[in-house]
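Question (not urgent): is this output format expected?
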Amino acid sequence: DTAKGKLEKAKQDKKQAQEQATQLSSEADQKKQAQKEAEQKVKENTQQQENIQKQIDNLNAAGSGTTNAEVQELETKANEAKQAYDQANTTAAQEAQDAQKAADDIKTKHTALTNAEDELKNKNASYAGLLAKVTSAEGEAAKKAATYDAADKNAPKDDIPVEQKSDFYKFLQYVIDTESKKENKNTNLIEDAKRAQKVLKGETYVVPEKILEVKKTTKQTPTGTITETVKNILPGYTAYAPTWYNDLVKPGLGRVGSADSLENMKQAATYYKALDDYRQKDVPGMKTVKVRLTFIAESIVHSFYSAAIIGHAACHDTMGSKTPDELKTHAYNTNVAENVAWDADYNDYDSNRPKQDLKQCNTNNGHLSCTYEGNKKHNALDAWYGLEKQIYDKALKDKKWNNHEFTEDGLTALKDHRTDFGTYLGNHPNLALFKDDSNGETKNLFKNVVGHYTNFSANNNFASGFAKADNSNTKMLGYEDIAVWHGGNEESSISIDEYNKLLNDYAGTVKSNTPSLSDEEAENLKKLNADANSANMAVFDAKYDALTAKHNMSNTDRSAVEALENKITEASKNFEKARAKATAANKAKEEAAKKAAELQTAWTAANSAYEAAKQK
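Got this back:
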């Protein structure tokens, strides 16, 4: 009787499983859950069958005969198992058919995509070739990213937002939260941190105009005394994210060796006091160096660009302000100066490191290029400020540079405008700095070769933001560290001590559950990061080449090309949808086949039990 009761329950359970299996929806997402539940029911039923069979086997072993009722129950059970198997087999066949149909649809959609691409090739083969280079570069970048991700067990996923993966962004949020809780909060600091967050996220931000000074003057007129108010205003501006942000910066944030890591933030923090010491020793009474968070964010963003190419992001647009709007890359260069340097090791500013001798350096081409002795390490600031100051001072003393004599006006500019040299030359574009330099070539070379120094020695460039990274890999230098500085005249900045305290306090709150990397592991990841960054730059370069080619087309050709591009985009979307549908169909096919196989096993077991019972 107990065996009978269990058989009856198994029968009901089997019936429920069968009903659930036959009610599966045709949609892939609905099928998944329904099939999972049905599969579980089948498993439970199969286990029940096995238990019952054991009881029957035990009865047989004890010499008891099998009753007709029990045989009938086993026959019914076997028939029901056969029906369940047949239904599952039918479903599996249908799923296989659907999967084949989806596979055929992929071919159709791929043909449509190929035809659309061929149309563009026939219309403008040159432009189509540029788009092909974009696709190729994107494929290579994806490989480099995958290589990094495979090596870094804690690599941030593509869909993780900047807020979660960037140490610098988290630090900025800490600053905002900490300062906002104070009774006498520094609203300028909070706004600075919020702007820095926008920079790091690739968002536009607006800086309103600022009144730096108000002067009132009086003058006599025939009608009486007139008072005039003169305002010294720093113009406001809108800062747009660089057009290369999504290709270069977004994928690189949060990786080992990138400038936004806490380790590199700490190392860059050692540069501020060194800069201030240089300034105060050079020209006593210079404004004290301060820290501006927005400038740090800009330096971090620009570090990804300059890590892949020996150059400044702001120099990409060779036509400067005359660059057509659609070709502007929007580097951060409004009211800000930038210095960049590359070297094997820029970890921390270390005053014990040897300073390079000017005799080891060449400046003829307008760039400071120095040779190295063995594996000696040098500081970026010692070259930026120290070496270039030597060039400036020697030129003033010798009254010439690179065998080119200065004019009297040129010597006056060097002597009297050390703390605003760049601004002075900008305000006097026709000033002849050198004799026999009618085209101004020597003047430009000299400005470049002392440019880092004159950026730093400008009295108004006291607000600073340093970034340091280990993700540089260029054709000229190979793997290097990179240091970037942005500076300008921004009153709403904080002292070096205040910044260091904020950074140290934040670091004290950081708790990591991930194991520390060995030096070898860290170095490997930094190089893989550098490789990925260089590949990302290749993607941007390819895109910019295509954009430039389109810009140079006639309106008619551009319209025709854009229409075909839209057609390719639509065909590509349809192709990707077809691939996704085929993937889902194949999964459903596999699951249906698996279920059918399991039900076949259950039917075989039930039928064997029935056949064995008939023989008793």
